[in-house]
């Protein structure tokens, strides 16, 4: 028997996702037409002998979360439950606090997935990888790389190059890359947990969470396979934390012994002991930390729909809008046949799109999301009664249009994409700060709930908080 645990965090987390997380918990935000968590649960439900999926976090139980749990359980025919932490306990403290619930029924192993990642979730491959290594008590980290291979032709054409410690290519030779290419990927690796592996056995020899200098191009994907033995190692850290708190007379009681981080407290200690291994994947993976990364994640999932859910992708047909690339349209949306949508567009429930509208690389939301499959029904009253409207001849590019928002005729709402380097198949989204050099970092444009954009106005690289009626254009601003 197997189980899965999805770490969903809480309202104090995911601040970079605001103002979208004001209206709906971040894990329930729709990505490629369905709640973010649904992709995780669907992947878990496809694993043979999966009996239960547990969501662990510190959101207060509410109607929308309960509705999602009920709908997901009915759709995927697997038990789905929410376990609420009394406080933020960290990636290790949460599963340790609920260890009795996880171990109920005596599962032989269980997966742990962070909610804020998008992936193909190669969970079955991770199980097979564990069996192939012959140690049923080993722990597995899903890893990927931030460094791409260069061909030998590119290598010989490069005047200045360096030797890179990455696995040999198909011909057995060590590959090389340009200094500029190296620095970009080395810098990106500093934003993740970095793994040094034994290239023959895939054992994790060294693990560092967000190092200050380059350690490895293999990064932690936030997806793990554990056996029940992991709780012995977490328990040791818990006991040490308790002893430290008893000896620390300066502690004011705000520290909690149960606040344990898998990455810093567990993986760092297990590395090099022959118990922790990394399974490297070349399939798509990305974090969903900001609204900009949600658009990129939507693109990845829409592309995956060709294999998993082709029925979710819109197609060109007589009397319908022009579809360019991968587009999701909810059946209740009303779209003028002269509109042009795509690539990478997701249209939610009840959205109205007028004549001549152009939408590209964007997510258009509606309050009463997924009425046909009621997986997500935000509690805000504006979500239930009104529609997002994109009126005639307007243009929406690299943006998220919030619930109940209206964009007037001939208006233009545009953002700057935060995509990774398109020439590097292993590049990841850079972790940009909200401000840089005292100015708002150019990124996608976000319209919160119930925002009205008048006709013939341009909104560029801006964040508009909910319930705003704008009367002019804005550029590179946060409209409070």
Textual characterization of the structure:
This protein is of the alpha/beta class. Helices cover 24% and strands 26% of the residues. Strands 1, 4, 5, 6, 8, 11, 12, 13 and 14 form a 9-stranded mixed beta sheet that branches. Strands 16-19-22-25-28-33-35 form a 7-stranded parallel beta sheet, with no helix packed on it. Strands 17-20-23-26-31-34-36 form a 7-stranded parallel beta sheet, with helices on one face. Strand 2 and strand 3 (34-35) form a beta hairpin. Mean pLDDT is 81; it is low at 148-184 and 367-386.
Topology, please?
Layout: E1 2-9, E2 30-31, E3 34-35, H1 36-45, E4 50-57, H2 63-76, E5 79-84, H3 90-97, H4 99-103, E6 109-114, E7 117-119, H5 123-132, E8 139-145, H6 152-157, E9 162-163, E10 176-177, H7 179-189, E11 193-197, E12 204-209, E13 218-226, H8 230-247, H9 262-270, E14 276-280, E15 285-287, H10 291-308, E16 322-323, E17 327-329, E18 334-335, E19 340-341, E20 345-347, E21 352-353, E22 358-360, E23 362-364, H11 381-385, E24 389-390, E25 395-397, E26 399-401, E27 406-407, E28 412-414, E29 435-436, E30 439-440, E31 445-447, E32 452-453, E33 458-460, E34 463-464, E35 474-475, E36 478-479
Parallel strand pairs: 1-4, 1-6, 4-5, 8-14, 16-19, 17-20, 18-21, 19-22, 20-23, 21-24, 22-25, 23-26, 24-27, 25-28, 26-31, 27-32, 28-33, 31-34, 33-35, 34-36
Antiparallel strand pairs: 2-3, 6-13, 7-15, 8-13, 9-10, 11-12, 11-13, 29-30
